[in-house]
Every structure is written in C-alpha cells, then in structure tokens.
Amino acid sequence: MTLNDARNRPLHDLRVSVTDRCNFRCTYCMPKEVFGRDFPFLPRAELLTFEEITRLARLFVERGVEKIRLTGGEPLLRRNIEELIAMLRGIDGLRDLTLTTNGSLLARKAEALREAGLQRVTVSLDSLDDAVFTAMNDMDVPVQRVLDGIEAADRAGLRPIKINMVVKRGTNDQHVIDMARYFRGSGHILRFIEFMDVGHTNGWKMDEVVPAADIIRTISAEWPLEPVDPNYVGEVANRYRYIDGQGEIGLIASVTQSFCSACTRARLSAEGKLYTCLFATHGHDFRALLRAGDTDEGIGQFLDRVWRARSDRYSDLRSSYAADLPKVEMSYIGG
Ligand code: SF4
C-alpha cells in the first residue's frame, strides 16, 4: 500500500528517536545552556517500549515505509538497543535499517549491532581537529574515539558508512578540505550539512550558513567533482563523485536548496509522537492509542489521516515564518 500526503508525497522513510538523551551537547542541536544537568529528560516509563516501536513500525511499513533510521538524542545510550534492532529486522517489507550516532560508543557496540541485523550506520563528525570538535560537541570526547568507532563499524560490515559534518561559518568551515582529504578513497561517504534553524534554542543565524554551492566550489578546486543521480526519489543528500574515482560525497542543503517537494520522511519521538516535518511545532500522539488498547486497524486509520493531511514545506517557505516559531527540538526527534 502507498500512502500519499496532501502534496502527493509517499510515506517512505521513518525516523525513530529511541531516546531524547545524549552524551554530547552539540551547540547546533543541544546547547548545554538549555540542556543542562537539571533538564527534564523523558522518564523511562514515558518512552515507547521496543514492542510498541515495533508494532508502530509494522503499521508504517504496511503503508510503504521501506527505510527505518534509528536516532536519538544518541540512540546507543538506549539500553539493549540490539533487541529492538532484531525485532525491527523481522518486519516483512523493511528494506533498509540504519542508525545515526555520534560514534562515541560505536567501537564497542558495532559487532553486536551488526549481529542484531543493523545494515549500516551514519556517524556525525564535525571536524578532525580536537579543539574544534570538542568546542562543537561541548564535551571532552576526542576525535579518535569517533574514528575508532567508524573503523569498528567498517570491520563489522556496517556499510556503506556515511559521515555527517555540519558546517558552520567561523567555527569549522576551515576544515572542509581536511575532512574531504581524510575520507577520500576510504569508501565512506562524507556528507556536508548546511547549518539549520532547527528547534528554537541553537541561536541560528543565516550568516553562519555556508551554502552547499560554496562547499562544492571549494572541494572541486582541489579535486574535480561531478553530480550523481539520486539513489531514490526523496533522497536527502545531493550526490557528487570525485572524477578521479576516489569516491562520493553528499550535500544536504536544506537552507539554500530546499527539497520539501520530494520529502517522504516521518519522525517518531521517543515518547510516541509523530512529527511530519523536522521543523514542526506539534506532534500526533500514538502512544496514547497504544496504551489505551486501540487496535492495529484503529491506529492505522489514525496514521492514514495524519499523513494524508500532511502539507509541510517549511524549508521552501523558511523566510515567511516568524523567527520565534516554537519548532520542536532536533534532539527530541532525531534530525
Ligand atoms: S523542511 Fe520539512 S517538509 Fe521540508 S524537507 Fe525538511 S522535513 Fe521535509
């Protein structure tokens, strides 16, 4: 079954946040000033159980979802996440099961994740320079810990590995070439993400955005690139490959080249609210239905209604929105 929204976009990708907690405090996502020691993170009882997540995931897959991405906060902080992965792996029709992590816990978990059925991973890494990296994640975690995680994931066979670098002017944009040089020829796909005005706490400014076109120009000057067709309609990153055969990179240009017209992504928060856009202001509560004993049919019909009514296109219309729009925090719905 295919389920299209009000702009005829099919439901294809589900991003599932399994925790709102993280062991990093990346300034563009979870600034320490807001998410401090006393921040009221979700109590365990309010998190969806693995059984509840799997039951919902099955209903999404029945409606056309082929790809599930596990996110957080930091998903590897959720205890026994391997059990959830094994449960999701058992869903007929699920083609792609992946996970986005900050990589700090990956070195000791990679093998178990693979054995449980995870297919691949995306690792966030904003610089190879320890001073810049720790300034951006606001924790004393060295780059080497993340590089060890990437290596362990590669050894475990979690491929292809994608590396996400959020580029912020005046913070780490001077390291774009270093990152490109490091991952060229590695087989891993480095993606550059434009700094986004997600949530309402990261102090976003347009002049701290480095447009994707500038990043392409900078890299092409060193190593010529050519565009590559998307793997599927709705793929987030614009793909490029090095003409000398040293691999591929991606650009996620939500600010300067918005892609809402082909957006097929739904996001489920750790407490069971469905968000139909990364920049949404409210979610739809599925946990209440689950815990009220509703049937699969009833919950499925609610999902149909929510998705069919979806008309989000925030990035296309960014400038027309008020700067203080109470957008959901990215750390709560997993980017
Ligand atoms: S802004 Fe919303 S609708 Fe547009 S691409 Fe992002 S998540 Fe999709």
Q: Any chance you could write out the topology, listing elements then pairs?
A:
Layout: E1 13-17, H1 50-62, E2 67-71, H2 81-89, E3 96-101, H3 106-116, E4 120-124, H4 130-137, H5 143-156, E5 162-167, H6 176-183, E6 189-194, H7 212-222, E7 225-228, E8 238-242, E9 248-252, E10 265-268, E11 273-275, E12 284-285, H8 287-291, H9 296-308, H10 330-333
Parallel strand pairs: 1-2, 1-10, 2-3, 3-4, 4-5, 5-6, 6-9
Antiparallel strand pairs: 7-8, 8-9, 10-11, 11-12
Helix pairs in contact: 1-2, 1-9, 2-3, 3-5
The chain binds iron/sulfur cluster.
Given as residue ranges, the uncertain stretches (5+ residues, pLDDT < 50) are: none
- The overall strand count is 12
Number of helices: 10
Instruction: Examine the secondary-structure arrangement and name the CATH architecture.
Output: Alpha-Beta Barrel
Unique ligands: iron/sulfur cluster
CATH topology: TIM Barrel
Please tell me what the overall shape is.
globular
Compute the gyration radius: what is it? 19 Å
Question: What is the H/E order?
Answer: EHEHEHEHHEHEHEEEEEEHHH
Mean pLDDT: 96
Strand order of the largest sheet: 7-8-9-6-5-4-3-2-1-10-11-12
Beta-strand portion reads 15-25%
In brief:
With about 325 residues, this protein is α/β, with parallel strands linked by helices. It is built from ten helices and twelve strands. The two termini are about 25 Å apart.
Architecture overview:
The protein has helices at 50-62, 81-89, 106-116, 130-137, 143-156, 176-183, 212-222, 287-291, 296-308, 330-333; strands at residues 13-17, 67-71, 96-101, 120-124, 162-167, 189-194, 225-228, 238-242, 248-252, 265-268, 273-275, 284-285. The protein has 335 residues and is α/β, with parallel strands linked by helices. The chain has a single domain, classed as Alpha-Beta Barrel (TIM Barrel). It has a twelve-stranded mixed sheet with strand order 7-8-9-6-5-4-3-2-1-10-11-12. The longest helix has 14 residues, at 143-156. The protein starts with 12 loop residues before the first strand and ends with a helix. The model has no long low-confidence stretch (mean pLDDT 96). The protein binds iron/sulfur cluster.
